Amino acid sequence: MRQDGDLISRLSEQGYRLTPQRMLVLSAIANSDHHISAEEIYAQVVAKYPYVNISTVYRTLDLLKRLDLVTETDLGGGRVRYHPVDKGHHHHLVCQECGAIIDLDESVLSSLQSHLLREYKFSADLRHLAIFGRCTNCNQ
Q1: Where are the domains positioned within the chain?
Q2: Do the domains 5-74 and 90-139 sit in the same CATH topology, yes or no?
Q3: CA pair distance 36, 73, nearest whole angstrom
Q4: pLDDT tens for each residue of 9-50
Q5: What is the pTM assigned to this prediction?
Q6: From 3.40.630.30, 3.30.1490.190, 3.10.450.50, 3.30.70.60, which CATH number describes the 90-139 domain?
Q7: DSSP per residue over the chain, as a string?
Q8: Distance CA 129, CA 71 (A)
Q9: Own/partner pairs, 32-39, CB within 8 angstroms, 24+ separation
Q10: CATH assignment of 5-74, given 2.40.50.40, 3.40.50.2300, 1.10.10.10, 3.40.1170.10?
Q11: In sequence order, what DSSP letters do the residues of 57-71 get, joined into one string?
């Protein structure tokens, strides 16, 4: 089953052309079981469409971010990762020692968001966040 249909229809509804390259980028993002980097997307796209340039992938990702269809998260390692907005908001604990990534439920940060608004009159966008530290295995 194709999971990229929602991204495709939302892009089309907003009047953007659905080029083969864009379709392949959308498919790579929507069908990934994890957060995916531009380089990983490019590898999937170029395997099916050999004449695509990585700049096409970056331009498509920029468009998808502007349209609020994907989130961009820095999970360390020098690469940002992408995730469809409609797959839900969640956060990550990233171990700086071993690289483990632990999903953190969104509700854990709701009190922080409320505190920031109440005490600092700051409306924080905590839809997708990575917190760096050390996991329990590396702390032993």
Answers
A1: 5-74, 90-139
A2: no
A3: 10
A4: 878 888 888 888 999 999 999 888 788 999 999 999 999 999
A5: 0.71
A6: 3.30.1490.190
A7: --S-HHHHHHHHHTT----HHHHHHHHHHHT-SS-EEHHHHHHHHHHHSTT--HHHHHHHHHHHHHTTSEEEEE-STT-EEEEEGGG--EEEEEETTT--EEEE-GGGGHHHHHHHHHHH------SEEEEEE--HHHH-
A8: 10
A9: 34/81, 35/73, 35/75, 35/81, 35/82, 35/83, 36/81, 36/82, 36/83, 37/79, 37/80, 37/81, 37/82, 38/79, 38/80, 38/82, 39/79
A10: 1.10.10.10
A11: HHHHHHHHHHTTSEE
Tokens describing residue 43:
């590898």
Most confident among 51-60, 73-82, 97-106, 125-134 (mean pLDDT): 51-60
Residue 113, pLDDT above cutoff 80: yes
Matching residue, tokens 């505190």: 115
